[in-house]
Amino acid sequence: MTTLSPTPRSTVRRLPHRARTDRSELHAVLDAGMVCHLGLVMDGAPVVLPTGYGRIDDVLYLHGSTGAASLRAAARNEPVCVTVTHVDGVVYARSVFHHSMNYRSAVVHGVPRLVTDDAERLAGLRAIVENMSPGSWEHARGPNRKELAATAVLALDLTEASLKVRTGPPLDDDEDVADDVPTGRWSGVLPVRTVFGEPVPCPLLPASTPVAGHVGDRRD
Amino acid sequence: MTTLSPTPRSTVRRLPHRARTDRSELHAVLDAGMVCHLGLVMDGAPVVLPTGYGRIDDVLYLHGSTGAASLRAAARNEPVCVTVTHVDGVVYARSVFHHSMNYRSAVVHGVPRLVTDDAERLAGLRAIVENMSPGSWEHARGPNRKELAATAVLALDLTEASLKVRTGPPLDDDEDVADDVPTGRWSGVLPVRTVFGEPVPCPLLPASTPVAGHVGDRRD
Questions:
Q1: Structure confidence by residue, pLDDT tens digits, A74-91
Q2: Which of the residues B62, B105, B123, B180 could staple to B85 if both were Cys, CB 3.0 to 4.6 A apart?
């Protein structure tokens, strides 16, 4: 089986037909997310925390306060796992056993590198801000020296990654499909998506300030 | 500081004013989710995978194929971390440094227990199915002996858990707020929510089958 990367832990073993091996698909799934789940090992136990991220080519950037225990642990040359998941639908099957979700999920393994080069730190922070709020890097005030000093930036190569995707209708047993008419059971997919609502201005903002285009244009 | 649970790792240290200590709020955040991120340690490295879950009182149930390496690892009396995150808004601040997300995030630590009692296994599976697709347990065909044998059910106590919530407008520096008029920068929150679309019937379903109420009523 072809994989996105050659290591055993980034090779999808469970339901391998759901594995995708196109690197541009991996990028698309990462770029479509706003929050990843960062996994670390702290005192021998796993810790999973939500956090923002950004991507430049085949590098994922993470950031956090230099005071955060999780960031300090991740910067210690120890392995992390970053997972980005989109839920696309609830799959209603004829049997509860075959109930499922449609989803896209990217899993990245690796040892992050603490970014020390000033230009790369800025580029990484920009990628993180722009992934969450495209247009903000130009619109908002940029980071000053003090803010930069308080922020740690980590880089994680996308070398060791896997992508799993489920799409389409339920996959039921033939006997259950044959029972459709007598049982009258419904089966299919309920699509799920994430939408943006009406922007809520900061209460301190002068009332005359128009909603910036890069914000207002995201409304669904 | 009061905590939901008394251990150091379930005490929120970073931005502790965002910590919530009401157990019913923890339950509400868990119940509002469909997918958790399950963290395990495998071969010394963290692995984070999305999976369904359900809750009964102060127990979280997880399930999976008895053939899945992650479930086997989680059933080995080893610690896991389960995180459920809702993104509620993108917080646009005057500075990129204060950009943030509004979110609710529950983090549960513990060593899961492999459920062996038949009644608890069924109750756990029911909780998982009903959390993802309320009403399906009654509507769809229940699990048969073979399906039950292929499914492992794990129970994780909610004893050691933390809940972190951010709400409200951006928190900017006074100097940046004072610059509002000259800069014309917009600041505020873009709400984010998850919605359900129009149900898509299984292509094999007879066209006359009406959409079941427990599915159709979820549409936004």
A1: 778 899 999 999 999 999
A2: B105
